[in-house]
Amino acid sequence: MMKLYIIRHWKTTQWENDIILGSLPWTLSEKWIQEAHKIGKYLSSEKYDISKIITSGLDRTIQTWKIISEYIKVPTSQNFIINERDSWIAEWKKESEINWDLYEKKSLPYRKHLNWESFIDVKKRARNFLNYINTNQGNIWILIISHSVFILMLISLIKKISIKKALQIDIKNKIIYFDVNTKELKLLDIN
Predict the structure, then answer these.
(1) What phi and psi values does residue 118 have, to the nearest 5 degrees?
(2) Can you give the pLDDT at residue 175?
(3) pLDDT digit string, tens, across residues 77-97
(4) Which residue of 28, 40, 46, 129 shows the fewest CB atoms closer than 10 Å?
C-alpha cells in the first residue's frame, strides 16, 4: 500500500516580507528552520514509516529536506516536476507591486504571470507526477516536500474539486496524507 505525506517547505526570509519568490532560490528564515526541525522530529516517530523522500529542486525545499533528513534517514531524490510554478514577472515583488487587474482578465484556472505557468499548467504537472508515483514507486510511504500551488493542484486532482476551491485550502503547518490505494486524503495539523 502506497501512502504519501506531503508538506510545504517552510517560510523564507523573503516570504515573511511578502515577497513573491516563484522559482527564486532564497533561504529559510531562522524561525522556520526551527519549525522544520519540529516536523522532522514529528515525522520520525514510529507511526510514520517513511522509506523515501522526494523534494522539488528549489533551494527552500532542499533546505527543508536537509533539516528533516537529520531525523529521517532514507533515500532522497529531487523531482523538478513538483517545483513551484514559474512567476517570472512577479518574482522578487511584493503583492502590492503587481498590477492584479491584468490577471483578472483571465479566468482563474488560466491566470498566469505573463507567458509563464497557469494553474491549469501546474495541475497538468501534478497529474504527471501522480502517474509517475503510481507506476514507479511500489508499495512504500513517501514524504514529498513541495510548494503551495503544486500541492493545492494535487489536492484539486485527488479530491476532484475546482482549482478555485483548492486554492482556498490552508495547508500551512499541515501534513497532507494521501493513501494512493484507497484515495483517502486528510490534512493533519502539526502543532
Answers:
(1) -90, 170
(2) 87
(3) 888 777 776 655 555 566 666
(4) 46
Amino acid at 11: K
Give the residue from 27, 8, 42, 51 showing the smallest Cα distance to 169. 8
Looking at residue 142, the DSSP 8-state letter turns out to be E
How far apart are alpha carbons 60 and 26 in whole angstroms?
A: 6
Integer-rounded Cα radius of gyration of the chain: 16
Distance CA 65, CA 33 (A): 11
Return the CATH number at 64. Answer: 3.40.50.1240
Structural domain tally of the chain? 1
Q: pLDDT tens, 73-82?
A: 998 888 877 7
Nearest to 175 by CA among 158, 151, 139: 151
Which domain, by its residues, includes 49?
3-189
Cell matching residue 59: 533551494
